[in-house]
Amino acid sequence: MTLPIQQDFSLQAFNTFGIEAQARFFAEVQSNEDLMSLLFFKGFKNIHRLILGGGSNILLTQDFEGLVIKIGIKGIEKIREDEESVWVNVGAGENWHEFVLYCLDNGWNGVENLSLIPGTVGAAPMQNIGAYGVEIKEVFDSLVAINMTNGELRTFTKEECKFGYRESIFKNELKNQYAIVNVTFRLTKKANFNISYGAVAQTLADMGVTTLSAKAISQAVIKIRQSKLPNPEQIGNAGSFFKNPEISKQLFEELKEKYPSIPSYPIDEQRVKVPAGWLIEQCGWKGKRIGNTGTHKDQALVLVNYGGATGQEIKSLAEQIQQSVVEKFGICLSMEVNII
Description:
alpha+beta; Uridine Diphospho-n-acetylenolpyruvylglucosamine Reductase, domain 2; Uridine Diphospho-n-acetylenolpyruvylglucosamine Reductase, domain 3; Uridine Diphospho-n-acetylenolpyruvylglucosamine Reductase, domain 1; five-stranded antiparallel beta sheet; four-stranded mixed beta sheet; 9 helices; 20 strands; globular
């Protein structure tokens, strides 16, 4: 084994919450071969393993008594194109936002609404990341992942990934079974912009944009995100901690009678999506601090580490928020962040 393996390694710099936790073993891989050799090194045959991307969607609640594998596989390659589309294969370790900027520079459309989302390309399909009316599944073609039990390389199509709202097969039935090594996206050469969600259209108008472009939309999205979400380099957080709940239209109508200002986004004839941030704020949590943790002053959906908080403290806060939302609205909030 030539790959450097570190013991009792601090993960504080590898999670955006800035939680101090240690990995019994830690290694970063730069290629499929590195990953294979690490997965099947006889010394690690029966050890618990954690695949780590950008650390922007995890909450470490304890030391990890196993092997943490940081995916550092890089590379962006255009593999084919036609008159309308271009297919781009990207290493799982590439920074997501830097990939978005690369697409903008090359005139490839489809990911501009997903600007400034933290994390890596490999983590994007696991979570089916989404923002401002666009989800990764809309530009996704396929991915390649390594089976961590037998070393088999498998290609997953969009259908096989079973994408849902912040969901995929890798968060459910195949959780902890595969390590994603590269992702192929199908991007468009022609403009098909989406500015219908949130404050994108208004922000573009405020910016004085008269000719719509992917770069302009990206800049608007960046401006909105920076105004709403705290920078993890300044205060520890993992962005939105909870998913926006989907409820029945009947429950929504009942709630609307009691809370006429409740915002909503219709999904279909039977279901409605309600902003989790609004629900949390109505329960009095916005800007509330408990010890070294709390909710952000500008966005109740974001839990923060003011410095020195443990993962257990943040998890406890999240559970208290869930309980209060259930008691007030009868809605159970699901955590978007992965608890380790």
